Amino acid sequence: MSRNCPKGTSLLMSRWLGHGTNGIGWRWLEGTELQPKRMAALARRLGAARLDNSSAAPAVTRRAGRARVLQATPHKLWWLAVPPCLRRKAVNGCSPQPAEWSRGKNNMRPVLLAGHERALTQIKYNSDGDLIFSTSKDQQICVWYAHNGERLGTYHGHVGAIWTVDVDPTSTMIASGSADNTMRLWDIKTGKNLKTWEFPTAVKRVEFNEDGTKLLGVTEKRMGFLSNIIVFDINPDPEAEQTDERALTIVCDESKATVAGFSYLTKYIIAGHEDGSVSQYDAKNGDLIYNEPVHELNTPITDLQWSQDRTYFITASKDKSAKLITAKDLEVLKTYVADTPLNSATITPKKDFVILGGGQAAMDVTRTSARQGKFEARFYHKIFEDEVGRVRGHFGPLNTVAADPTGKGYASGGEDGYVRVHQFDKGYFDFMYEVERERKNRQEN
């Protein structure tokens, strides 16, 4: 910060989203106009353009009709002195933001769901976006109302850590996979265990196809058994008896599969592997069509989530990146680079964003602070690949993130055992790049 500040330079304040901000990333609040001498003195007092702990910064009285008096709060308020020409720009490489970003009330506050005793492993919304299913290492599945976080109930039966869960398209049944070497089918309404399939090793991933007539499971490579991708035909009637016969078995003999799912029209099975590659299999006969080294060698793919039409998907990896890939030919469309290993990634509907979650390894968390551990949900623009903001709150690594299919919010689950449900506010929906705004104006005119 220069001593010779331009006339009209303002003191700006911002809060992170996780502490009540209305918008992704930074929220700018225009402060009282200060004289250059006063601004230079303040800059010398702060010692830098940015101050992490604002307890040393003075509160700012804003003029009547513009804002109220805000008191500095440690670790929550960030202060920045910038000239007027930069008021609408974020810092640290973030993109220009429109004025609408900082208007309105602070409505985007998370609902904390504390129903698990151990680390979260996966979160899933149903197709209507009104129910959230969560699994953890505490051997139970929880179901919650998405709008207020009320818990409807739990599903008991597994005797090991539950790694995965998925919901059928009609919200009639859910499937789960566990470290007790079983995959189970449940009636959502009654909680009844409809079917149990047993395997030699743990089930790390389950997923229904688009119409709920097929169910996929990924088994672990362990004790001399290879990793398998197994498909069962599912009767959508919860009262009907489910078959024990496998419709398809794919043996992953080179590198074990960590995640897998069905593409559009159940045409392909896409699998992510421990060596960082992605494979495309024929969903009818299990033949390998493509295998592409998408991520760095020997960096496991930790998550795979689909777009709404299942024509493309996003992967997260321990190589600190996420990739947007087509299902048809495994072409990498976009790459989102982070500064920490990633455990999960999801694509938001309605708006062009992706959300990434990760952080420092759980075994090292006790030796670092939350800020050093980088336990934030990171928002990137899906097209331009820019990071546009972060959401704090978890005090452990994020193990799973999921976007509301209606586009109204998202949920995250962490090693801390909490599920945090966020409802997007007006600032999120109003956010646009300048090129997007110009395009919208041309279309309207």
TrEMBL record:
Subcellular location: Cytoplasm
A GO BP entry: formation of cytoplasmic translation initiation complex
The keyword Cytoplasm appears for this protein: yes
WD repeats: from-to residues: 113-154, 155-196
Keywords: Cytoplasm, Initiation factor, Protein biosynthesis, Repeat, WD repeat
InterPro entries xref list: eIF3i, WD40/YVTN_repeat-like_dom_sf, WD40_repeat_CS, WD40_repeat_dom_sf, WD40_rpt
UniProt family annotation: Belongs to the WD repeat STRAP family. Belongs to the eIF-3 subunit I family.
Function: Component of the eukaryotic translation initiation factor 3 (eIF-3) complex, which is involved in protein synthesis of a specialized repertoire of mRNAs and, together with other initiation factors, stimulates binding of mRNA and methionyl-tRNAi to the 40S ribosome. The eIF-3 complex specifically targets and initiates translation of a subset of mRNAs involved in cell proliferation.
Protein name per the record: Eukaryotic translation initiation factor 3 subunit I
Organism, scientific name: Colletotrichum incanum (Soybean anthracnose fungus)
Top-level taxonomy: Eukaryota, Fungi, Dikarya, Ascomycota, Pezizomycotina
